[in-house]
Amino acid sequence: MKKMTGILFATLLAVGCSSTSMTTTESATGAAELKGKSPSYYRLVSDPLPIREIDWGRPLTSLHVKGYLTNQGFVPVSKVEGSGRLCEGGNDWVNLADGSFHKGDSGETPKGPHIKGCKGRTGGFMPASKEVVVN
Fold this sequence. Notes:
22% of the residues lie in helices and 27% in strands. With 135 residues, the protein is α+β, with helices and mostly antiparallel strands.
């Protein structure tokens, strides 16, 4: 009976630890807690408002930024990856934390991690470079 109780306790502990570790990673606020872990989400640069979950079975080819979803919004952990057109001299920007678009001539100062670029002819955002600016 003692042996069975020990096995049951170990199983419950293992199940409990595995489920809390994923929740902790996805709701963590500090970059140190996220370091070394694979990102779970991404923002598509052309349509940055929705946060999408990474499907590791389907490679991402369009321009995107990988990161984590935290209680402070989306936290990028990569530069712009993938292939696609870049915008020359774009001074508009997208805030990566909330996916919002801002015109460069609005007088606003970019806050948080963002991508500089411009809106394309079809309305999608195009980055000026593959750099993610963090301030």
